[in-house]
Amino acid sequence: MIPIRDTVPSRRVPVVNNTIIGINIVFFLLQLTQGSGGDHYLLLYGLVPAKFTDPQISAYFSLGQKLISLFTFMFLHGGFMHLIGNMWFLHIFGDNVEDRLGPARYAFFYLLCGLASGMTHLIFNAGSRVPTIGASGAIAGVMGAYFILYPRSRILTLIPIIFIPWFVEIPAFFFIGIWFVLQVFNAAGSSGSAGGIAWWAHIGGFVFGILFLKLFDRIPATGFSSRLQSATRKKQSHRFQVIKPTHGETASDLYGALTITQYEAMVGARKLVTVPWGLQNRLYNVIVPQGIGDGQVLRLKGVGRPRPDGTRGDMLLKIKIQHI
Fold it and tell me: Taking every annotated instance into account, which residue ranges of this chain make up the domain Peptidase S54 rhomboid (predicted)?
């Protein structure tokens, strides 16, 4: 299952989340420049449990090198697809958690989730000499927080069936719940890091993400966070929107609502909307013209139900302008 987007738009630009994604990309580019020294680079900055538990190996590393690896490992990746997969999950789930916690609390939350995931991996794989790298443990913490904050959100998911892409909306609690159960089964059925995947790091990150959310949600936001949140308030609504159509006076026409901001109403916008159709969703591009007013209607021709003559009805989207 490949998540495409969630249905909960963030109200602000996720500055910290975007910065974390940028840092991960920079670290990956630095990895590519190591050449033959790549293995040493991973041993130094990756999380190697034996550095903390095996006296002979521990002697090769200073205290500072061992401590810094507890944080640097979460910014390293084993390949391009590893990086892309992790950053895509962080992009989808991280912006909403940052929106709730604020930039400062979210930054500390993310780092603590990564640290907790690494410590969990270290406990369950104490003698391992294999470097563990990747942001997935920290991202698991973000997913744990999302699981608690937005259980009723829906995740537009791509399920490839042979060569046919099948898009379906899955409740967030179910999508993330299935993901977590798979981590537990894989951890129970392996040494905890079989196939190069640190399953216990995922489990630890997820569980501690829920615990840290409860803690950080009680800590008041700083004045800096409040000012930054105000400055980063989005001028645009979510580009991807889900339309829940209703039937009109005629059986063939459908009706729905499209939400935009005051800024988008003034300058225009392009939206990608999904319309539930049977067991999957159909995607349509919608162009919102400049100067549109609240309550005006856009007509999507041929998107409605079939008529007796073989043609299709239309969908009429009523514009709702957010006043933020």
Answer: 66-213
